[in-house]
Amino acid sequence: MKKIFQIVTIICLTLSFLSCKNSEKSDTNLKDEVANPTEKKDLKEEVPQPDPATAKSIAAGESVYTQNCAVCHQKNGGGVPNLNPPLKGADYALGDKKPLINLLLKGSSEVPIKVNGQTYSNVMPSFSSLDDAQIANVLTYIRNSFSNNASAVEVSTVKEIRSTSD
Ligand code: HEC
């Protein structure tokens, strides 16, 4: 009788040990899933990082912007009501590169101008004194700042448009 009791105890202990091991195993699996959630990984990959050349151009463009543009369009790209339009979310800044490059080379005295129902009466000066790289960089900067996200402007495109514009 004593022997049977011993055997039952051993079986019980073995069973509880095994189930304990199993639950430990599923615990670690769970921990692994929390530490490496595949969804989080995918989300991270969705935010595109600019390629190194674009990142360099954005950085160089920032100082061109601070020195030449921020006085009117403001550091945050928000513009000044009634005077200078915002660059944040501006279709013109994010759209076709040719008219954008031409605007910088020639300026615009087409005033007052209406953007999104608002009137701006200041004059956009010509920046033809900036070199091709400075223009490409500052445009790449405004297209990738203030929550804007558009393709980079190449130096060669600025060069081409400067040489063909009258
Ligand atoms: C003296 C103030 C002033 C400065 C400095 C200035 N801008 Fe402007 N900018 C304006 C005004 C005013 C307009 C709108 C006038 C127009 O398009 O006829 C404008 C328009 C623009 C637009 C078109 C926006 C739209 O939605 O139509 C872009 C892009 C732009 N500027 C970029 C720049 C960049 C880049 C610089 C610096 C290299 C710069 N501006 C410097 C006043 C300025």
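^ heme C complex. The two ends are 110 Å apart (CA to CA). Confidence is low (pLDDT under 50) at residues 22-33.
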